[in-house]
Amino acid sequence: MIYRVRMPRPPLSHFVENLWFYQDLVAGHTHEKLLPDASMELIIDLVGGPKKLYDREEHSRHADYQRCWISGMQRRYIVIGTEPGSSMMGAHFRAGGAAPFFGFPISELSGEVVELDLIWKREILALREQLIETPSIDGKFDLLESYLVSKARGRLEPDKTISVALNALGSWPVLSLRDLAAHLGLSHKQMLARFDCRVGLTPKFTSRLLRFRRTLNTISAASDAPNWSDLAIDSGYYDQAHLIHEFQEFADMTPAEYQQKKTDFPLYIHLD
After folding, report:
1. Distances (CA, A) of 60 to 1, 32, 160, 166, 219
2. What is the pLDDT of residues 20-34, one digit of tens each?
3. Which of 109, 113, 142, 212 is most solvent-facing, going by the fewest CB within 10 Å?
């Protein structure tokens, strides 16, 4: 199996955290739980055949996706299939980073996974064919990066208000939403509208996801199980019960269960 990641160049790097590629997937499991992290993902299948998004509760039910798709901001985990031998590439957007590439409020994609030819029409399918025909991995990265820059059509100027807000929500202690709106010079209603358009979820929910992702990273980096009460307080939760509640909502597991099942990739949990 080949796995590569590239950091895009500015100004794209302000919106896209990384471009990724893998070829000839090797996996000892058939399903993965993908946890939410306040970001969006663009996926391009380089081999073909349907890829599966499973019902959370009943894995015998699934939706099929082909060629290219976009995963919007998710409020809970999703369950995806692992197809041995598959090859894919894509872009992992930063929180609030996908907006310049779509001509509508990004909240319309929240909680959804949508085939991209429904939005970007034939041009995304033409890009996929070019990526398949390009032999080198670096060449594929160059092509995808150039396409995204072109797709933004000059809109790659960071929204400073959203950047300041996300930095505040991603730190600890977090400002109250009233204080944050005042800090931004916006009314509460204006702040909600800006988040709806650029981020896809409310500031409060985005803050919860950013805190959850920070906690995942802390657990993933630890060699042993942490003191859960200390972790809860250090991560910005009221107490251990609050920490457990958030893990149950977002991941349908306790923090201890996550620690036991964690993989090299903090957002991915093998199911079987």
Report:
1. 28, 14, 45, 38, 31
2. 999 999 988 999 999
3. 142
